[in-house]
Amino acid sequence: MNKNLPMVPGTTLTIRLADETRTVTADGRRTQLVLSALLRQAGVSLNTRCGQRGLCDGCLVDLLSGRLIDAATGRALPETGEPHTVRACQCRLPPEGAVEIRVPGRSLLAHEPQVVTSFRINVSRAHDPLWQRSDLPRDTWTDARPVAEAVCAAVARQRDDDLPVRPTPELDQADGPWPAPSVVLEQAGNVWLVRPAEAADASVAFGVAVDVGTTTVVAVLVDLTTGEIVNTASALNAQVRLGDNVLTRTQLCITHPKMIGRLQYAVVGRTLRPLIDQLLRETGVTGEQLRALVVAGNTTMLHLFAGIDPSSMGTAPFTPQFLEHRVLRTSDLPLRIAVRRAPAVHLLPGAAAYVGADVIAGVFSSGMVYGEATSLLVDVGTNGEIVLKHGDRFWGCATAAGPAFEGSGLSCGMRAGRGAISHIRLAQDSCEPTIEVIGGVPPVGVCGTAYVDFVAQARRTGLLRHNGRFAPEADHHARVRPGKHGREFAIADGADGQPIYISESDVARLLQAKAAIAAGIVCLLDRAGLTPSEVTTLHLAGGFGFHMDVENVIRCGLLPGFRPEQISLVGNTSLAGAYLALLDSGVLDEMKKISAKLETVELNLIPGFESCYIDQLAVVG
CA quadruple 265, 267, 268, 270: dihedral positive or negative? Predict the structure, then answer.
């Protein structure tokens, strides 16, 4: 497929993608843009997760012919006579001429992610949604007391819980006999608000549960009457264009306060709003039927979601602006949902700057909050969060694993999505790897689950040594070859004809990520005087929750000292907690109790953490 996008005559840029070729022509003004920005204007958005600062390899493209200009120095990049790789955010087109580039699929921001939208819930719940329509006893509207007082008293008797019941202004202003037997109840923080039911309230009501991740956002549409999940949608968090982790985004807010609004709009307006539109459109639900949203996420993400400055979490003592449950309205946010009554938006409570609402949601939904046995929750992602429960105490910590588990920063790495190699198996007696590709299409790159598989299996078959380097005998393997970043193992030929491989440098980065999480687990257990054998259940959560090969996870050393039978795969526990809170208002109180009880452990203050981290860099085998 060829798409020609005409522009003012100037430099001609040919863009080769996996399934099409595009040609654009840039005039003098456009040639001053960095290549990543020019490509975005042409509809080819790259993964500029470091904010186009040249700090990552998310926007790598291959220069096939022609020359490019170094954006910082204004000098032409040296010609090598053969294709070579450049960062698109660090170069621009020359004033005239012809340039041809190839954009690998893993560099595309538009690459659809595969997000874990399934989860396992290990706790029971009541059906007591945050928004509900209720019928009142007949004697309520014949009560001699003022209407608002009589109705609130009747609702309070029905609910028989600790939260006070308050009238809305329209109920408070009601005069005369109570006109209808139904009311609408909506939880607004620490009170239930009551108003008269209207005709529109008789239609089926829906809510949305949202997991706002650093990298991805996933939302589910829920029927508030049945509790059924009727639709699911997910997308990359548009904030990745500005920075790939919470530290980068926090630093942007410190140096450029205007970035707070930009980051809020990126996640709310450019990410969540289209997801809600998709959920409603695909199910035929109207915006007027949307009654409540519940949002889980780490503390930085919830600050930016609410448009609140997270800068105080960028420096010691890392103090958040808020941790408590907050209730906003869609009208307070750049959501622009056209409804007469703006639905409430509940932000779940967190425990600390780096142990956020997503973790608290996981502690609850996994069931470990009520279990008597010693248990761990390990959420593997850009930020590895770990919670230990022993007796009636909870300890929690976070460790900066980085984006390697999502394939970022690796030679052929990509996030899990269509075309990603998701699993790799190596046989002792065969040179040919067996691979699984998401979507059953020609491969584009390698995602985190496959990298873990490779490290574990290459160690098992003797290809890798304990330090992550290829063994000397691997030089005789048909698929091992010298490369730019150490020796490489060729996995397959990609959809674009280029080889897909894993290098020694890739293995080193993955080992650093797994060592950070493994060291966090060891230090947290040491803090409580426990060993892995004393943990009854380890709940493995996050994007790896339902897709990892547990034996390979253990073999590569991510869960040191644990056995497969101890591992429970629980999926997206952050989303599970948001779903539970939407349908059972009592869950909010339970989460608040967990937040207050959890003891935060600062790993950087533990004297032995660095030594433990170094010990965990090895491949177990």
Answer: positive
DSSP, collapsed to helix, strand or coil, labels residue 222 as strand
DSSP string, 275-295: HHHHHHHHHT--GGGEEEEEE
pTM (2 d.p.): 0.82
- Name which of 226, 144, 227, 224 is nearest 185 in CA terms: 224
Give the model's pLDDT for residue 179. Answer: 58
Pure H helices in 194-272? 246-255, 259-264
User: What string of H, E and C letters represents the secondary structure of 408-453?
Assistant: CCCCCECCCECCEEEEEECCCCCCCCEEEEHHHCCCCEECHHHHHH
3-state secondary structure of 38: helix
Pairing state between β 91-92 and 216-223: unpaired
Phi-psi region of 36 (alpha: psi -120 to 50; beta: other; left: phi over 0): alpha
**Whole-angstrom distance, CA of residue 67 vs CA of residue 258:** 36
> Could you give the residue ranges of the DSSP H alpha helices within 222-351?
246-255, 259-264, 273-283, 299-306
Mean pLDDT of 556-572: 92
Quick: pLDDT tens for 254-283: 999 999 999 999 999 999 999 999 999 999
Residues 70-91 pLDDT 10s: 888 888 888 777 788 888 989 9
Residue 382 and residue 403 in contact, taking contact as beta carbons nearer than 8 Å: yes
Pairing of strands 98-102, 60-65: antiparallel
CA count, 13 A, side-chain hemisphere, 344: 19
**What whole-number distance in Å separates Cα of residue 210 and Cα of residue 576?**
9
Instruction: Copy the structure tokens of residue 130.
Output: 């945050």
* CA-wise closest residue to 19 among 3, 4, 31, 7: 3
> How far from 537 is each of 355, 468, 530, 598, CA to CA, in Å?
20, 29, 13, 19
Cβ atoms 155, 134 nearer than 8 A: yes
The two three-digit tokens of residue 186, written as one number = 């909506």
**Positive or negative, the Cα torsion across 611, 616, 619, 620?**
positive
Cβ-contact 164, 189 below 8 angstroms: no
For residue 109, which phi and psi values (nearest 5 degrees)?
Answer: -70, -30
The tens digit of pLDDT for each residue in 109-119 reads 654 545 445 78
